[in-house]
TrEMBL record:
Gene Ontology BP term (one): methylation
Top-level taxon in the UniProt lineage: Bacteria
Pfam families attached to this UniProt entry: Methyltransf_25 (PF13649)
GO terms of molecular function: methyltransferase activity
Domain Methyltransferase: 48-148
Keywords for the protein's UniProt record, in alphabetical order: Methyltransferase, Transferase
The protein's name in its UniProt record: SAM-dependent methyltransferase
SUPFAM superfamilies: S-adenosyl-L-methionine-dependent methyltransferases (SSF53335)
Species in which this protein is naturally found: Kumtagia ephedrae
């Protein structure tokens, strides 16, 4: 089995049962998701892609905030996508949402979604679960329109929290194959810089969560 196939199988095993209670339990510690979505600023009728869309919870919130937006979601777990499809249908936004099974580190937007690029791409607490998380960032940046932006929120390093809190959280997360990425800021600065995009990086909740936005490419001066 390939590394990607193995990761897909692992995610399906993890979430085959958890997906039914995922949103209820995760709301207490996946901090910053709503703040990230509130800052998307999707243009009228714009396109929004979530990598690692899980149960569809974030797409539903984005859809409520931007009722004219076209929504797209990709996830490596078929089990999670099944749950997402049901949730989106119950909320009445399935008709403007396209969900696709795929690898966030290597996807072709046109082939999967019929879109050349997206106005907004966001990744919420998924990079800490993707083995090749650097590849996922690269793929997300490639999928952006020149005036689009990439929005990320994930576990930070809890810089301003007690040491015991950090070690306890990291040990607990490891049981669920979650690894906060200590070099996330450096990697984002490198990749965003190479793509010609400015980066805003913030530490929320005393470093519990890290939030980043890779913005539009500056317009060329004539």
């Amino acid at each position: 089995m390939s590394a990607v196939g193995g990761h897909a199988a692992l995610m399906d095993r993890n979430y085959r049962l958890q997906r039914h209670v995922y949103d209820l339990t995760r709301k207490y510690y996946l901090l910053g998701r709503d703040g990230m979505i509130a800052g998307l600023g999707v243009p009228q009728g714009g396109s929004v892609l979530e990598l690692g869309c899980g149960t569809g919870r974030n797409l539903i919130l984005a859809g409520r905030r931007h009722p004219e937006a076209r929504l797209f979601g990709l996830d490596i777990s078929a089990a999670m996508l099944e749950t997402a499809a049901g949730n989106l249908a119950r909320k009445g936004i399935a008709g403007r949402t396209t969900l696709t099974h795929g690898d966030a580190t290597a996807f072709h937007a046109k082939e999967l979604f019929g879109e050349e690029t997206f106005d907004r791409v966001f990744i919420s607490y998924a990079l800490s679960m993707i083995p090749d998380w650097e590849g996922a960032i690269a793929a997300a940046l490639r999928a952006l329109s020149p005036q689009g932006s990439l929005h990320i929120v994930d576990f930070g390093q809890q810089e301003r929290l007690p040491g015991w809190s950090r070690s306890t959280l990291h040990a607990w997360l490891a049981k669920y194959h979650v690894t906060p990425r200590a070099s996330l800021e450096a990697e984002l600065r490198s990749q965003a810089g190479a793509a010609g995009r400015p980066l805003r990086f913030e530490r929320w909740y005393r470093g519990y969560a890290w939030h980043a936005v890779a913005g539009p490419r500056p317009a060329l001066q004539s």
